[in-house]
Every structure is written in structure tokens, then in C-alpha cells.
Amino acid sequence: MQLFRAYRADSADESFVVWNRNELGRSRPDEVWYACRELAGAEEPLLKVNMKLLSLFLALVSSVAAAANNSGKTVVDLLAESPQYKMFSTALHTAGLKEEFSGEGPFTIFAPTDEALAKLPAGEWDSLLKPENKAKLVSCVTHHIVPSKVVTDSLKTGPITTLNGRDVTLSRADDGKIKVGNAVCVGGAVVASNGIIHGIDTLIEP
Hints:
Helices cover about 25% and strands about 30% of the residues. The chain is an alpha+beta fold. A seven-stranded mixed β-sheet has the order 6-5-11-10-9-8-7. The chain has a four-stranded antiparallel β-sheet with strand order 3-1-2-4.
């Protein structure tokens, strides 16, 4: 017979023990209970796991689940859905690039967050969206996109050519953060059906 058991996580230790007890649903400030299924009958701790390794595992599971949820959605779709990329998504549409980047790809978009674009001098971004400045807008948007999939975990540093024909340099800062030219990647990557989106903290200078 199988019964549900529980992981007891003790905040005083970086490890936790799977105890032979049925305590599902209980939670206190000093401990967290995680459900698991084990054979009934054991009176001793069944398993000891390092919490840091568990955190990495859960992060991986979360990433896989997020990728599954984004299945079929393009980089254009996910930019439009994300609350932090509204301004860049608007720019991509205004530049007439929606159809191009809804294609097969792969594309990597280094997308300035709304917070990043809000740091620009007053009126600069709005001016770029005007019809008479469309050529500049296209150049700006495509300077943030490369025709390949850039995965930061296996990053190859050095220059990479953007879709406007200019190079930007990918590098890793002393603190481990990824830099794209003068910008720094922020938040986690968003995986789409035709590429990947990396948020950045400022507009990439040409």
C-alpha cells in the first residue's frame, strides 16, 4: 500500500528529511511541508536532500513548465503579453516588423524594459515613434535583435551582428551578469516558439 508522505524542511539546516508521517497541508514559519509519495511502514528518515540542489531542480522544472506554456507563441506574441515590454512591443509594431518576427526564426530579442525606456530624456522615445522617424525606429528595433538563439547559460562572449548590420559585444561582468553592449540583462529569459527574449536595463547604443 502507498501513502502520501511529507518532506520536512527545517530552516536551521540546508538539508531536509523525508519523515515517515502523514502531515500534508500543515505549515509553520519554521518548516515547510512538501508532498511526496513513499511506501508505508518506514520508521526512520527515508531520504536526505541538499536544499540548494533542490532549489536548482525546482527552478529547472519551473523553466520547463514555462516553456511548455509558451508553446506555439512567437517572440512577438510574448512581447505583447508581457507587462514589462509594452513600449518595445509597440515600437516593433509601429516599425512594421510584426510579421517578420512572427516567422520561423530563430530570433533573440534583447528587449529594453518599460522601466529602461522611461529613463530616456523626455520626449525622445515618443519622437522615435512618429511616422517621419520610421527609418530610425526600424534601425533602433533591429539593433536589439539577432538572427540566432542566444542562450546565456552557454554564452559565447564577443561581437555579434544584429539585424541592422551593426555589431554589439556580448560579455559577462564580474558579478556574473550578462552584458549586451552597454546594457545588462535583467530577469529570466522568455522562451518562444521561434526564439528567446532577454530583458535589458537600457537601450543599446549603436
